Amino acid sequence: MLNRVNSILQQNCFLSSGKTLLVGVSGGPDSMCLLDVLVQLGYPLVVAHLNHGLRPESQSDAEFVEQIAKRAGLPVVIGKEDVSSYACIHSLSIEEAARNLRYRFLFQQAELVQAQAVVVAHNADDQVETVLMHFLRGAGMAGLRGMQYLTLPSPWCDHIPLVRPLLEIWREEILAYLKDRKINSIHDQTNLDTSIFRNRLRHELIPYLADFNPGIRRVIWRMAQVLSADYDVIEANLDAAWEECLVEQGQGYVSFRAPALFIQPEGIKRHLMRRGISWLLPGLRDIDSSTVERALGFIEHSTRSRRLDLAAGMYLLREADLLWLASWQADLPVSDWPQLAADDGCSEGLFLPAPGSVCLVDDWQIHAESLVLDETIEKPALGNPDPFQIWIDAAQLHMPLTVRCRQPGDRFKPLGMAGKTMKVSDFMINMKIPARARANWPLVFSADTLVWIPGMRMAHACQISNSTQQVVHLRMLRNTPEPDYSSRQ
Amino acid sequence: MLNRVNSILQQNCFLSSGKTLLVGVSGGPDSMCLLDVLVQLGYPLVVAHLNHGLRPESQSDAEFVEQIAKRAGLPVVIGKEDVSSYACIHSLSIEEAARNLRYRFLFQQAELVQAQAVVVAHNADDQVETVLMHFLRGAGMAGLRGMQYLTLPSPWCDHIPLVRPLLEIWREEILAYLKDRKINSIHDQTNLDTSIFRNRLRHELIPYLADFNPGIRRVIWRMAQVLSADYDVIEANLDAAWEECLVEQGQGYVSFRAPALFIQPEGIKRHLMRRGISWLLPGLRDIDSSTVERALGFIEHSTRSRRLDLAAGMYLLREADLLWLASWQADLPVSDWPQLAADDGCSEGLFLPAPGSVCLVDDWQIHAESLVLDETIEKPALGNPDPFQIWIDAAQLHMPLTVRCRQPGDRFKPLGMAGKTMKVSDFMINMKIPARARANWPLVFSADTLVWIPGMRMAHACQISNSTQQVVHLRMLRNTPEPDYSSRQ
Questions:
Q1: 8 A C-beta contact, residue A131 and residue A106
Q2: For an interface test with A, which of B149, B204, B209, B212 has the most A Cβ atoms less than 10 Å from its Cβ?
C-alpha cells in the first residue's frame, strides 16, 4: 500500500516529499487510511476537517479527528459551516453544498499554510460510482473519465493542486489495511441511506450490474483510465483550437473567429463551447448538454448577425466573422470599430474642415485635406478602392463637411450602385456592420448629403470626373496599430 | 419519418438517390419499416434475406420476405446458412456466428448487384443496447460511441459502406409507423428470450436504469453521438501518429520506430497498439483490453532487445530502435541487415581473396583490396572509425580470408578493449544485433582468427602499426541505397 500510494504521489501527482500537504480528514475509513499512509511516508502534514453540522455526531467526529491529529503530533484545523442554509441560498442539494463548502475550506487552509497540495481520500470504488453517476446523467468524456489523480486548476483554486492518491485502492483494501494497522475510523451511517443517489449506486446498482459482469467495478475503473488518456489527447487538440479560434476573452464574454471555428471537427466545436461556457460560469459543475447542443446547432447554421439565447443569461451572437459567447451583464467591447462619442455625434455633429480632423473614440480619427488634382495623385487611388480613404470632387461639396451619427431617415446613394438610393441602415446591414456598432458609426456629410461612410463606401455623386480640378482627400485611421487578433488573448 | 431518414441517408451516409441499395430484411418491424421508407423515397433496391435456419419459423420468415419483395416488384435474394455448425467450427456464440454469416452474405450480394451500400435497420434502441453492452464489457471510445451511420471499411468489405439510417428512430416510432402504414412484420419470439445477453439488457437492465434516470435511453444515445464526434478527433490524431511511427506493415507484422512511438501520448499509444493488433487479426471484434494494457506496459518499460508474448500468437519484439508487433507465423523481414545465405555461411564459409568480393543476401557485399600503405590513404581512416570499412595490417593475415557465420565457441578480441577476449555471441548482444540477425551475420576470418565483424568492429590484433607496409582494405556495402524509413510505408 505504501509503495503504491507513494508511486502515485510522485509519478502521477508530482509531489515533492519535503513539502507540506494539507490532508482532508473526515475521520472515515478512507481518510484515516490516507492519513496513516502519508504519516508513514514522512510527508509534512496539516490535517483539516470541516464540521458540516449535518448529523448529531458531527461534533464528536470533529473531536475524534482533532484528537487523532494531536496524538500524532500533527497540526490540525477544524472548520465549521452551516451547510443547510448555504444549500438553501444557492439552491444546491445538501451533498453539493457540503462538497463546495468543504473544498473551499480545504483550499483556504492550504493557502494559509502554503501547502503544495490538498490531498483527499477518494478510492477506486468512489471512482466507479462517480463514473456511473456521470454515465447515468449523460456526461461526455470529461465526466466519464472520472476523477483525476491531479486536478489543477480546480473550481476552488488555480495554483494549488487537488490530488487523490488512493484512486486505485479498493475499499476492501482500505478496510484490510485499517484492520491490519489497528486504526479506528468513524462509520458514517448516512452512507447507508439509499435516498442519497450515490448510495443507491453503491448498494443497489453496482451489485445489480455485477450480475451482468462480475468484474464490473474493474471494468468501469479501467474504462475511466482509458478515457482519461483519450481525453488528454482531445484536450491537446482543444488547446490548439482554442488558440486558433479565440479573438478575445474578457469579463463575461469570449469571442471567436467564426470561420476558424466552423472548420473545427464537431467534437472540438463542442468542447470549445463547453470551455467558453465554463469561462462565463466557472462555478457550473455540469453544463446541460442540451444547451451545448443548441449552441452547436447555432454555430452550424448561423447566418451572419444573429443571436441565440442559451441558458443562465448566456447568449451567442454572430457578428460578421465574429462569434460572441457572452453573459447578458457583459459589455461587449466595441473598440475595434470607429465610433463617435455618444455626446459628439448625434444631432448637429462635428465640423470637419479641410485641412482638419475629427477625433473619434479609441484613437480613431477622420482627416480631411484639400488638394489640386495633379499628377502627384496616383490614378488608381482615384477609383477609391480603399474604404478607409477617398478622393472626392470638391466642387460637389459644401464645406466644411460635418461628421455625425445616423439619424432616422438618412439615405445614401452608394458608389457603384448606379445611383440607387438606399436607407443608411439597410446599407449598414448589407455591409455587415454589427448592430451595436451602427448607432455611433461616423458618417461624413456635406450639408444634408451623405458623402462617405468611412470604412465602407463613398457616395456616387462625389466621384471625380474629367473636369475635376480640386479634390478633398478624406482618411479614417487609427493611431494604434490595427488589432492583431493572434496576440490578443 | 421519410424526411428524417432521407436526410440521414444523404447527409450522414452520403448516398446518391439514383444508385442501387442492398437492403437487409429480416422481416421484423425495423427492417419492414426501413424497406417501406426506402421504397417511398424511390431508391433502387435489392432485398436480401438470410435464412439462419435457427428457428422453426425460419423458412416461413424467408418466404414472407420474398413475397413482400415480389409484391413490391423488387428483386429479392434469399440465402441460407448453417449457423450452428459455423458457430461450432469458429468457436463463436450463435449470435456472433449469425451476425458474421449475415453480413458476409449481404456484402456478397451487394458486390454482385454493384450496390452503392448495404443498408440495415438498427434503430435508436439497438444503439442504446449496443452502447450498454460495450459499457458492461469494458470498451473504450470505439465501443462506447456505438454504431455509426456509415461504416467503411467494415470487417466484411473495404469498398462498399454499411449504412444504418434508422439509428435515430426509436422502436416506438417504428411500431407507430408500421401501424399507421398497415404494414405487417414478423415477431421474433427469441427477442423475448432473456438468456440472450442483449435481450436481458433490453428487458431488464434498461427498465432498471430508468429508475435512476427516466431519460436513460436518450442520455445514452446522446452520449454515443458525442463520443462518436470525439472519437473522430482521436482518430485524426491516430492517423497522424500511425504515419509518424510506422516503419513497415507486412503480412502478419507491423513495425514502429520506437523513439517516435514512445513520445506519443498514452491514449494514442493505446490506439496505435489496437490498430496494429487489428491489422494482425482483422476478424477480431473486441480486443481484450488487458492484452492492450500489457502491450502498453511493455512499450513504456522495454529496454532494447526484448520480447513479450501477447495473446492469440501475437508478440511484441523490441530490436534497437524498432518495435515489432507480429504473429508467430510471420517471417519478419531481415533485408536491412547483412546476412549470409544459409547455404553459404555455415561450416567452411566462402573465400575472400584480395582483390575480391563475397556476395551476401539482398545486395550486400564484402570487398577486399590489397594496398601498399602510403600517403594516398588518409590518416584518420587508419584509426578505423567506420564500422563498414577497415584497413588492416596484411602481415597479420593468412590469405585468402574466409567469410562465414558464427559457430559455437567463436571468440573475438575486439579493437579498443585492451586485448580482452569475448564470445562472439556476447559481443553481438552488446552491439544490439537483433537475435534473429545474429546466426547469419557475416564474419571475416583469417584462418581461425576472427578479423572483422562487418558493420561492427575489427580485431585488436589487426591494427596498423608503425612497421606496417602492406594493408588490406575491407568494405561491406550494399548496392541499393540505405533504407529510408520515412518512405517505406
A1: no
A2: B212
